[in-house]
Design brief:
The chain is of the alpha/beta class. About 40% of the residues lie in helices and about 20% in strands. The strands form 2 sheets. It has a 7-stranded parallel β-sheet with strand order 3-2-1-4-5-6-7, sandwiched between helices. Strands 10-9-8-11-12-13 form a 6-stranded parallel β-sheet, with helices on both faces. The two termini are about 20 Å apart.
Amino acid sequence: MKRKTIALYTGEVPPAPFLERLALGLAQMEYSVLLMGSVRRRVVYDSPFLRVVGPSKGWTRYLFFLRYAFLLTVFQPKAKQKLDRMLQEEGRFTYSHRIKYYPVLYHKPDVFHLQWAKSVADWAWVKHFGMRYVVSLRGAHINYSPICDPQLAELYRTYFPEVDAFHAVSEAISQEAQRYWAPAQSIRVIYSGLSLTEWKFNPSPQPQEVFTLLSVGRAHWIKAYPFALDVAYQLKQRGIHFRYELLGVEPTEELLFQCEQLNLLDSVFFLPPVPPAAVSGYIQKADVLFLPSYKEGIANVVLEAMALGTLVVSSDSGGMTEVVRSGVNGFVFPTRDVEGAVAKLLELQQLDAVSRLRLLENARATIEAQHSAQLMLAGFESLYSFNS
């Protein structure tokens, strides 16, 4: 039986680790997978059913464009003429558009799965060529970008009703997307999944001598690091001996100034980004993975911490309460509530070994029951089935 072809359009290849896991998992099932986007560096996968299709940087980009223009002209001339007419009518008959579109038209996957919703209008044309159009609903693209940009909100309202199916990373994201006319019946919530053989559970029931907090991310306002520094200040005021590491967070002028003003320079440490595979080492050395965010889908780093055996203290933003249950498998505080966050951190620090281990085991059980790679892949298999 012919394998169904799924094109995962990621923007850049290799993609984020969670997307790479999805591509590899689908290729092990009954799918041929095209991983599409601009190629940042050469990557070769073992599976014969996973191919990278995209232009590299430099002069080879033009050769890539000529190749697909030639293939379409020879083997699919009517389809090429139709797409070219559409692009001309829309004022998008440009090199930058065609170098993205021609490979998709030539390979004509059964399902075209766009990972980043902001580009939803750019790819609406695939439906005119018999491809099913799937769009992922993730974090920033849904949670706050359309609030900050009314034109983007209107674009969503125009194009979301035309999408065949949506993948939402959380129930909270699904609800947000419906504000922009994504039909509820077209949305499937599929939680991110981890390969549990790779993310081994290694809990430490005893806290370290120096209470160690870790946050992982980027210096973006939505991640609420100024708020986190206010929390750190309150810990210091209470005489708590702690070390707060911010991994991958650029020490901006604002953050450094706040640290200096709050006398935190000896307790807060900005660490440079590390490869994704190295993040787990930092997580395992910490007493707590601290997520102060104002808004999240479901943060992958929280799932990883829960799988590995590091306790989580998280804001109740977005979909975080769909995975972290306060007092059961971690701790949750109200978003923007400094005193609430401090209280949960102190509660965690004062746990006895038995209570600590119980929370850690519950956290791992949550990941196994709700966020395994097998569950994630089953969800996507259902999403791509398209019975009609």
